[in-house]
Amino acid sequence: MNILITGGAGFIGSNLTAALLKQNQSIICIDNFNDFYDPGIKRKNVADFKENPLYTLYEDDILNRKALDSIFSEHCFDLVIHLAARAGVRPSIDNALLYEEVNVAGTVNLLDCCRKFRVNKFIFASSSSVYGGNEKTPFSETDNVDNPVSPYAATKKAGELICFSYNHLFGISVQCLRFFTVYGPGQRPEMAIHKFTKNIFHNEPVEVYGDGLTFRDYTYIDDITGVISSNVSNINGYEIINLGNSSPVSLKYIIALIEKQAGKKASVKYLPFQQGDMHTTFADISKAKKMLKYNPVTSIEEGINKFVSWYRQNGLRDSLK
């Protein structure tokens, strides 16, 4: 297959690229290497792919329709996996217009290229944040998601709706995958597990918003890339599918696990609960199990162990340079 991955130099994108290249899929990556976090991290993520004849990298922006038209005309894509987005709940509150532009208009650009160039399969990276303040758990794909509590969440719901329109109007088959806090080696540096690990190793305060009893459904990267890479031919109609671990744990427990693996105690600084944050995320993954044969196997204990080991070998060394 010829597969376009947007945001392919990011955490999920680069790991998914590695998994698909192992299957001898042809991967075309678009990434604009923006400065939301250090672009050097993203360049390292894709450095090992550049010699692979099955891999092509375009340093372009999904908002540049001329560039997209050129890329789509040069390659005959079988599937677009759209991961590129402005990420993060809190930054979206201060910069909602940028989030709307990238996450909504960028998605329209890609879907319209699919229409124009007759690409009939599309995967959209959605988010557990669309569930907003829903109190019913676990979150099911059939739950109402009309009350997003951040601009980021609103843009992800908007993306799902746009995907539905293009499926309805032009017959493009779409999977909207709602990711639940994906983590693992190489995770973005501003994400909690990475940031907490760094601060514990460097004897810096670990900032906790609220009382530490917010719960997240943390999902290990290999479980995500495994299910996507094994289902690239299994995209039909329009589907919204949760991809989580279905085992939420508290922030306090995460900190305790990192402390154990690091062999160091955290200095925790408690701060007020932040606007836009959700108290709990908890995925009902029965649909993913049935449709995609999804079976997440990495426990949070094992995943944190792997992450801290990676940080010792990579992140810690790099931060001391």
The tally of helices reads: 12
Distance between the termini: 41 Å
- SSE arrangement, N to C: EHEHEHEHHEHEEHEEEHEEHEHHH
Low-confidence stretches: none
CATH-defined topology: Rossmann fold
The oligomeric state of the chains shown is single chain
How would you summarize this macromolecular structure in one to three sentences?
The protein contains 12 helices and 13 strands. By secondary structure, the protein is α/β, with parallel strands linked by helices. α5 runs parallel beside α6, α7 packs across α9 and α7 crosses α11.
Entry keywords:
Rossmann fold, alpha/beta, 321 residues
Can you describe this structure?
This protein is of the alpha/beta class and 321 residues long. The chain has one domain: 3-Layer(aba) Sandwich (Rossmann fold). It contains twelve helices and 13 strands. It has a seven-stranded parallel β-sheet with strand order 3-2-1-4-5-6-11, sandwiched between helices. Strands 7-10 form a two-stranded parallel sheet. Strand 5, helix 6 and strand 6 form a beta-alpha-beta unit. Helix 7 crosses helix 9 and helix 9 crosses helix 11.
